[in-house]
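ok so for the tutorial part 2 we go from a plain amino acid sequence to predicted structure tokens. step 1 is just haveing the sequence, like this:
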Amino acid sequence: MVAAEWSDAFGVVTRGRVQLELRDGEPGPVLGRDAGFWLRGTGVRALRDPGRHTARVRIVTPRARTVTRPSTHPYAGHRMMEDDMSSMNDTGAVAAPASGQTSHSRRLRGLAGTGFVATLAAMVATTLAAALARAVGVDFEVPDGGGTIPLSGFAVVTGFFSVVGIVVAVALLRWSARPAERFVWTAVSLSAISLVPPLLSGASTATTTALLALHLVPATVMIPTLARSLRTRTD
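step 2 — the prediction. this is what the tokens look like for a chain of 235 residues:
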């Protein structure tokens, strides 16, 4: 099929389900059997099969015919191309069932794996930093019934919010056209917000300063690692 013919093509799903992939790489809607779609003006660049069974699409394109018309125009002897919209090329196409979906799933799993390794590193780094602070005299005591924060508490909180960061990164890789940039902006904003509670805790100056520093430790581990992983998987 001539590539130029696809610009005016109309597709009909005749079997299975088909997901449209847009030009910016983002996934489009999933269409079921008997659903139709135009390719002109929709930004569709590929068809993907989100299901386990092979999907089939009927592609209907305009057929060009060559006509010669009497004319006094200087180029009357040249052939003219005219679209005959009543005469159509009817072509069957099979959506790729596995390659696009499998590749995307592999990228998501790779990002999640990288994130979990970074999470373990962030937990260890934060706990060691907290232990070092305690060794030099920081008591990590929070007034008003807060008690003393144990070292295990730093590990648990770090692990929880690191996993939240992984979820955000995976979601952006799945649905955003610029996942790395948006992740950095989101993560930095959330990290800045996380500095507010220590300032309002009423703890001693040493404890407050240590808590602020400990909030930055996992951020310096997680944000660059996930941002770099996102850039690698979107290049």
